[in-house]
């Protein structure tokens, strides 16, 4: 009877847990973003709470700060980004490869192109057709993606409302909620403390470290591209932010090729200016700011973090920048706790 009761309880928990997941599944993305933003701005909430003792009012003021800091600039940048992507997509869809032809005819590039043509037994006309076909397909995909994204404006707006609603309650009731979750964990106090510390370290290293550095590098790069007259600076700035997560190369994976292109095109002063900004501005941020923020918090190898970020983005979307490393770190922590429990039992 006791065994039947136990297995029946486990089965009931699994069924209800699955149903609960299905109920919350449509809202997981806005909830995840709400958790991240609540974590980032929680120090502001604590600061406001020192002067305003009503939690509801302090949470509302903090929420207003979040909306002012994020909604205005983000909306404007999103508008610019969509326009730039649409322009790039239309240009690529036209199959215009004149800039590439000019680049291929440069004295420095021509010998390399000739060797490639000889290696793959291609003529210059066949190469141009192949490149034009690839560019046209990329342009169609890009235009289709932008159009699809704009058609989902209602869903995006609803998710934003759910996120704002969640942020308010996470700020106001966050400590109590975390306390209840902690009480339900089937571990000892020492193991709970270790797990909480691991979560805190990963959140700080990914949000305050990786994401903050990424935004800083992308912002500086975008401003530099704008003043140097490089087309679609918002797109290249976003590409720089994403590239900052690549181990070893980082943001240089974007600004170095653009610098080389400027030198090849004969824009020596612009290339020199971008090289100086890249070395002493964009890349220097990664070497100074990230160690200061992260310190020795994260114990995971860089390669593991890199693949956890890529896998997280594929599985969760953009929020995977944080969720990927966090899930992997939690998995490693639970394995370590299990090993320590088994070690204690075997001792």
Question: How does this model look, in words?
Answer:
The two termini are 33 Å apart. The chain has helices at 2-24, 28-51, 55-93, 98-104, 110-120, 124-151, 153-184, 189-227, 233-243, 252-264, 268-294, 302-316, 320-346. It is built from 13 helices and no strands. The longest helix has 39 residues, at 55-93. The model has no long low-confidence stretch (mean pLDDT 76). Helix content is 85%, strand content 0%. The protein is an all-alpha fold. Among the domains are: 28-85; 94-153, no CATH class.
SSE blueprint and pairings:
Layout: H1 2-24, H2 28-51, H3 55-93, H4 98-104, H5 110-120, H6 124-151, H7 153-184, H8 189-227, H9 233-243, H10 252-264, H11 268-294, H12 302-316, H13 320-346
Helix pairs in contact: 2-3, 2-7, 3-6, 3-7, 8-9, 8-11, 8-13, 9-10, 10-11, 12-13
Q: Sheet with the most strands? A: none
> What is the quaternary state of this protein?
single chain
| Distance from first to last alpha carbon | 33 Å
Percent of residues in helices comes to: over 70%
Instruction: Give the total of beta strands.
Output: 0
Alpha plus pi helix count? 13
Secondary-structure content class? mainly alpha
Question: What is the CA-atom radius of gyration, in angstroms?
Answer: 25 Å
Strand content: under 5%
Shape: globular
Uncertain spans, ≥5 residues at pLDDT below 50? none
Order of helices and strands: HHHHHHHHHHHHH
Mean pLDDT: 76
């Amino acid at each position: 009877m006791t065994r039947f009761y136990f297995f029946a309880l486990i089965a009931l928990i699994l069924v209800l847990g699955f149903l609960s997941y299905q109920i919350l599944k449509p809202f997981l993305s806005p909830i995840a973003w709400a958790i991240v933003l609540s974590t980032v701005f929680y120090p502001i909430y604590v600061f406001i709470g020192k002067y305003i003792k009503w939690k509801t009012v302090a949470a509302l003021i903090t929420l207003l700060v979040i909306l002012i800091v994020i909604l205005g600039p983000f909306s404007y940048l999103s508008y610019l980004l969509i326009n730039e992507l649409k322009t790039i997509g239309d240009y690529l869809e036209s199959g215009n490869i004149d800039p590439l032809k000019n680049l291929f005819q440069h004295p420095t590039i021509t010998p390399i192109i000739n060797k490639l043509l000889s290696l793959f037994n291609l003529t210059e006309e066949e190469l141009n057709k192949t490149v034009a076909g690839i560019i046209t397909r990329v342009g169609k995909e890009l235009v289709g993606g932008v159009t699809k994204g704009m058609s989902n404006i209602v869903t995006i707006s609803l998710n934003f409302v759910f996120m704002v609603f969640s942020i308010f309650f996470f700020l106001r009731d966050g400590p109590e909620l975390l306390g209840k979750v902690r009480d339900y964990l089937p571990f000892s106090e020492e193991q709970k403390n270790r797990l909480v510390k691991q979560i805190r370290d990963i959140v700080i290293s990914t949000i305050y470290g990786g994401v903050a550095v990424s935004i800083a590098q992308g912002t500086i790069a975008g401003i530099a591209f704008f003043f140097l007259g490089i087309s679609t600076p918002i797109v290249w700035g976003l590409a720089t932010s994403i590239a900052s997560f690549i181990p070893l190369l980082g943001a240089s994976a974007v600004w170095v090729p653009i610098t080389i292109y400027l030198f090849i095109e004969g824009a020596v002063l612009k290339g020199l200016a971008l090289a100086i900004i890249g070395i002493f501005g964009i890349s220097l941020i990664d070497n100074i700011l990230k160690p200061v923020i992260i310190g020795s918090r994260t114990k995971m190898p860089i390669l593991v973090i890199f693949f956890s970020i890529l896998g997280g983005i594929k599985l969760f979307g953009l929020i995977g920048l944080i969720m990927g490393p966090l899930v992997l770190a939690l998995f490693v922590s639970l394995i370590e706790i299990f090993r320590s429990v088994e070690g204690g039992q075997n001792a």
